[in-house]
Amino acid sequence: MLAIAVSAISPTTSVFLIYGDGLQIAGTGVVWAFVIGSAIAVCMALCYAEVGSVFPSAGGAYTIVRRAISPVAGGVTSVLFLLLGVVSTAAILVAAATYLSSLIGAAVPVQWLALGMMALITALSIGKIAPASWVVAAMLALELAVIIVFTVVAFAHASAVTKPFTQPVTAGPGGALVGVGIAGIFAAVGPALFAFNGYDWPLYFSEETAGSRRAIPHAVVLSAVLAVVVECVAVIAATLAIRDIPAAITDGSAVEFLARQIMMGPAGATVLVAGVVVAMFDTGLTANLGYARVYYAAARDGMLPRRLQPLFGRLSARSRVPVHGFLFLFLGNGLLCVFMSLPKLITFTGVVIAIVYLLVALSAIVCRVRDRDLVRPFRMPLWPLPPRPWVIGYPGEGCPRARAATPSLVAARRNSACTRGADRHVGTGGGQRELLADDGGLSGSTEPLQALVIPVQAPNVSGMLTRPGQGGVQSQVGGIHRGRLLDMALFEQQRPIRMPGGLHPAPGLVVGQRVIECHRAP
């Protein structure tokens, strides 16, 4: 699993694919962009590891968001992964084909070389996972050797011209050097996140991996740390080796430009570029293996349109892999390889990845605060710091304003007045609404709460507490999760709660009946 994760990140691919764009955006400030991106990547890896260990599934991030936040958010994530699957691999293969074309000097257009690579990746993907894993591991060893050699040689040719940590600069009009501000550096953080993306890949093989449930989250964190160290050191080395900053920035491939200068002439550069092509192919293969499994999990859980569910939710009889998902990826990536440019593919991928990160960070907060009773094979250190880079406005459970704004997502006041009134019984037949209780004014309104229990598939029956709003629109002020009543005043796990007013919500839930009771405590 560690080999697959590091291959999905692919330090070699990341540096050779992303570094040039980052250099054009932020100049030598690309070093700071990668440092900032690495901090975010490690924080997100901790979030993925914890919530992924709680909800292990081939759906990975899609399953995390669906079970931690809501089926709707999970559906959004599945759509984002549909897009990522047919964009990110295409971006990698177009870059690989560009390097391959310069290496062999073929008259074949870059787009058709990329399409041929995609066909080969599809052929390798439709077999069992074990042979593909061996191919990935062998290519990973080669690509790590390439990036290590490049880094060592670049450090050996370090120049005093560039001072990326203290004086980041870029090329201005007429080739003059101008300083790079914070805005320029942060503009390059997006591509840097794309460079580190892939550490979550072990989660997508959770259902095919034997052994301890701690192995998967450990692989996620370890792969992120390895990628951060290798890539940041390589970026620093490459930047320090630049002697002509304007020429490096304006060159179409900054790293190849450096390789020709520091790798013992054209022969050394050719060997390096060949290794880069292998590394990028390896990354494309790993990405393809994971995305098809996300599609399978989404179809299995009913999160794709009905007509698509039988297609993506079917495994081949022989290899037990989602063959139709691989065919869809081949068609989608193949079209983009032929008709889309590399900069557009990279930019779009970075935006989608940022949205997925936000959803996973929110899931980590919700899961830790709300589902405290769940078994966690892995617990992130330094809680609650890791998810905060992506959830800037989340002030924590000690803030009353936070509780008022997002009552169903943050920890609640355990000793506050909660529900008052007579016995109520809430059934779920067709998603009907019945009066449950008054919220004691905690939500800033005297309107009674209503319960809407959404019939969904077992075992995670969920619903939400709502209050009538303007125009008959229901506003959410609490929730029902796994048979437990969650509202803005208090919630507990696994045991009954004695609430003011003598009401006693039963925490158990009979899945077949899908009924939640609220009755007088004895």
UniProtKB/TrEMBL annotation:
GO terms for molecular function: transmembrane transporter activity. Keywords: Cell membrane, Membrane, Transmembrane, Transmembrane helix. The chain crosses the membrane at residues 30-51, 72-97, 103-127, 134-156, 176-199, 220-242, 262-281, 321-342, 348-369. The keyword Repeat does not apply. It is a multi-pass membrane protein. The keyword Membrane applies. InterPro entries: AA/rel_permease1, APC_superfamily. GO terms for cellular component: plasma membrane. It is found in: Cell membrane. Gene3D superfamilies: Amino acid/polyamine transporter I. Probable amino-acid or metabolite transport protein. Belongs to the amino acid-polyamine-organocation (APC) superfamily. This is Amino acid permease. It comes from Mycobacterium pseudoshottsii.
